[in-house]
Design a protein that fits this description.
With 98 residues, the chain is of the alpha+beta class. The chain is built from five helices and three strands; from the N terminus they run βααββααα.
Length: 98
C-alpha cells in the first residue's frame, strides 16, 4: 500500500504526493487513519469507465424495458401494453424458455 501522511505533505509539499503517485494510488493518512485515496486522472477515468460498464451489465429488466431507443417505433413516453409486449419480445429474443 502506498501511504503518505498529511504531515509529510505539510513538511515537503505536494512533491511527496507526486512521487508516491508514480508508484500507484496513494492512501492519505491523517491521525493514523485513512482519510482519502488519491488517483492519477487516468486511473480515475478507467475506474469510471469500468463502473459504467458494470452498471450497464447489471441493468434490471424494467430498466431495459423503459430505456428509450432511437430506432424503436415505441418511445418511452408512449409505452402502452402493446408496446411493452413488443419490447419484452425484443428483449427475450434468443433466450431459451425454462
Amino acid at each position: 500500500m502506498n501511504i503518505v501522511t498529511v504531515a509529510d505533505i505539510k513538511r515537503s509539499g505536494f512533491s511527496v504526493l507526486e512521487i508516491a503517485l508514480a508508484k500507484g494510488p496513494v492512501h492519505l493518512m491523517k491521525r493514523n487513519r485513512a482519510s482519502a485515496v488519491v488517483l492519477r486522472p487516468e486511473d480515475y477515468d478507467r475506474l469510471l469507465l469500468a463502473q459504467r460498464a458494470n452498471t450497464v451489465a447489471r441493468s434490471s429488466a424494467l430498466d431495459l424495458l423503459l430505456q428509450p431507443e432511437a430506432d424503436s417505433a415505441v418511445t418511452a413516453t408512449a409505452l402502452d401494453a402493446a408496446g411493452l409486449r413488443v419490447r419484452l419480445a425484443e428483449l427475450n429474443d434468443g433466450w431459451s424458455d425454462r
